[in-house]
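Q: I'm writing a short explainer about Response regulator for a general audience and would like to include a description of its predicted shape. Could you first generate the structure from this sequence?
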Amino acid sequence: MTRTVYIVDDDDAVRASLHGLLSVQPDLVIRGFRTGDAFLEELPELAPGVALLDFHMPGSSGLDVLRRIGSDVRFAAVILTGQGNVTLAVEAMKEGALDFIEKPYEAEELLAIVDAAFSRLDQDSAEAARVQSATTKIDKLSPRETDVLKGLIEGRSNKIIAYDLDISPRTVEIYRANLMEKLEVRSLSEALRIAFAAGLFPKETV
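A: Of course. Here's the predicted structure. Afterward I'll give you a sentence or two in plain language.
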């Protein structure tokens, strides 16, 4: 599978050096950008991948770029820093960077960090897909079915749910059967996992 690495650094020599170090991995597609602004301009059209971001650049800094892509599950970011700029790197990691690497770069360390970033990216993408699938299923429920599901999550019996909703226990059973069918599950535990993945209820209620 092809994987894409974006090198965002205003230093031509640094971009060339990183390109050379990463080229030993035949499955990597490597693209370079001289500025953070140039990268951000193309961001909507870019394939998912790992972004290596220089901290100090003209225009949008590495931190600015990081803040823009922080919530985008298509990208994982690694900060490139000068030797001793650990404080800046820590600040970047608080903003969502997965890691940082100090100049000069060692090939083995760089490749290990990039591989780890791709692993994290794969995990985030899988989680995003799981959440999207769960949300789509939850959205199929009627308001009453959602009320019944909430009651089930809170550990209430059909009888108690019926009392709380002012409906008959038999009606609760019908709503329960309907919601299980819409969620495409056979057990309550599966329904609970979907509800939690969709963010329908706080974790402590599960």
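A: For your explainer, you could say: The domain at 139-205 is CATH 1.10.10.10 (Arc Repressor Mutant, subunit A).
Q: Perfect, that's easy to follow.
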